[in-house]
Write a structure and sequence with these properties.
By secondary structure, this protein is an all-alpha fold. It is built from nine helices and no strands. The protein is globular and about 45 Å long.
């Protein structure tokens, strides 16, 4: 069984260094998406580890956006995060702001879904429903191809993430979209509790 900081400490650390509701919502989203992927991919016993890595993957971004992941190890030390946990967090910035390559399947999932969840969330906001629950893969693919939409979401990283997992881009998108549909209400509830 992997070790990880408890949820209360993790949320406190997240909020200490991230005050923007957008960043907190993204962290909660990644946490739920990672938990669900752990369950779906046969890592049930490690689902809280996956979820906590998702929650704290951008722990330093709110305070140190220009030095993203350079501060993460120091901040994660405040909650006694294990080396394995810190490594997992650092791996999501591989080739951008970190030289830690995603090797474990959990690290590969984190790398792949970080940008993609942002694209899905942005796509949901422009829908009449403001939800991803009624979004179809076809609609998401159209947003993916329109590079001017949510321009901050790096499509190349999403593609590289799919490649690392050995999945097609469509498979990664569909799986992530399905998980976000399933967890949307839970994330909204958590956001109300946390803010």
């Amino acid at each position: 069984m992997k070790t990880y900081p408890d949820r209360e400490s993790s949320l406190a650390l997240l909020k200490k260094y991230n005050t923007d509701p957008f960043h907190i919502q993204h962290a909660l989203t990644l946490s739920e998406v990672m938990r669900r992927f752990a369950e779906n991919l046969g890592y049930e016993e490690d689902k809280e580890f996956w979820a906590t890595v998702g929650l704290l993957h951008d722990v330093d971004f709110g305070t140190y956006p220009e030095e993203h992941l350079q501060w993460a190890p120091k901040l994660l030390a405040e909650v006694n995060a294990s080396d394995e946990f810190v490594r997992a967090v650092l791996s999501h910035g591989y080739g951008i702001c970190s030289d830690v390559e995603p090797v474990h399947e959990m690290e590969k999932v984190l790398f792949a879904v970080d940008e993609l969840t942002g694209l899905i969330a942005s796509s949901a906001l422009v829908r009449p429903s403001k939800s991803c629950k009624d979004m179809e893969l076809k609609s998401l693919k159209k947003k993916f191809k329109t590079r001017s939409f949510a321009a901050g979401c790096d499509r190349d990283i999403i593609q590289r993430g799919a490649d690392r997992l050995g999945w097609t881009l469509d498979e990664l998108m569909q799986r992530t979209l399905d998980v976000m549909k399933e967890t949307e209400d839970r994330i909204a509830e958590q956001l109300q509790e946390v803010l």
